[in-house]
Design brief:
By secondary structure, the protein is an alpha+beta fold. It has one domain. It is built from four helices and 18 strands. The strands form four sheets. The chain has an eight-stranded antiparallel beta sheet. Strands 4-18-5-16-17 form a five-stranded antiparallel beta sheet, with helices on one face. It has a three-stranded antiparallel beta sheet with strand order 9-8-10, with no helix packed on it. The radius of gyration is 17 Å and the shape is globular. Pfam families: NAGPA. Keywords: Signal. Residues 75-254 form the Phosphodiester glycosidase domain.
Amino acid sequence: MKTLLVVLMGWCLGALAPAVAQGTQQVSACIAHTSQNSAHVHIVKVDLSCPSVQLVGTAVGTAPTTVKNFAFRNQLNVAINASFFDPQYQPQGLVISDGRRWSNTRDTRQHAFLACTADNRCRIDKPNHKAEVDPQWHTVISGWQNLRGGTYVCPRGASASCNRNARDAHPRTSVGLSRDGRWLYIIVVEGRLPDFEGFTLNQLARLYRSLGVRDAINLDGGGSTTLIINNKRINVLPSRQLFLERSVANQFGVRDTAVR
């Protein structure tokens, strides 16, 4: 009976999963999408030097919604879920959208963040570093663990759940920057599927290192993990969710105005 259920689950996944080809596909001249690990791992590479590329965060005061709705409303080429959030859908860590800081969010050593100016000069916060908020920051999203040099770094004084989350295989959403700041990488890993559990954070960190990325951050993952490209969901959602996309507190996306 258990074998039959696994077979049926696999059939459902095949029927409901988005069609994703292996290899690299150009989303635009400045955005490329690559799938690997039998299309369970999705890598989006964005050229931040393109003047047509815009980075977009969820507007202050927006009600929780799905990543797909966020992408559609903002006419985005790429969109993902972003920060961890509490039961009241309050994002954790520092969140800034269109230059405005979300109320009750703040810079903290417990949440690493990606901060970008309006002209796409981006930085990733160092581990255990409390930075001064720069008034030029246009878009900021926060994660949890830093990914550096092929491994993960939990914030100093973090609870045991930080290491537990890192060691276990889960669906993952993450962002990273090339050393020169030109390339933004978005990696989304599927998981909690009959044939694929996901990635540990060391696996994810090693993948970033293989791409030449020194600094990355782990964003909210698990059942929140979602990647939308040109209004189509690319990743397979965890089977326990019955393939329903979850509403999240905030999102992050990329728009290339050259293809609009």
